[in-house]
Specification:
The chain is low in regular secondary structure. The protein has a domain of 39 residues. It is 8% helix and 11% strand. The chain has a two-stranded antiparallel sheet. The longest helix is centred in the last third of the chain and has 6 residues.
Length: 73
Amino acid sequence: MPVAIGVDGSLIGRIIYPLGNPLDGLDEFWEFDELFPVYIKAPGIIPRKSVHEPMPTGIKIIDSMLPIGNGQR
């Protein structure tokens, strides 16, 4: 089983050690409604549309070499 941490409403506003032990001096908790994996796959890169409308700078060399357009440098 992969490493997981308990997720519950009793954790809101609490200060806990990374392993789940409380550091705030309040009562301990051991049963959770749900377990959430610690190591999950990161989300992928969002695909973007390529430059479809050029933005001319007025300098012919820069305009021909670099695709400066909507949101791209």
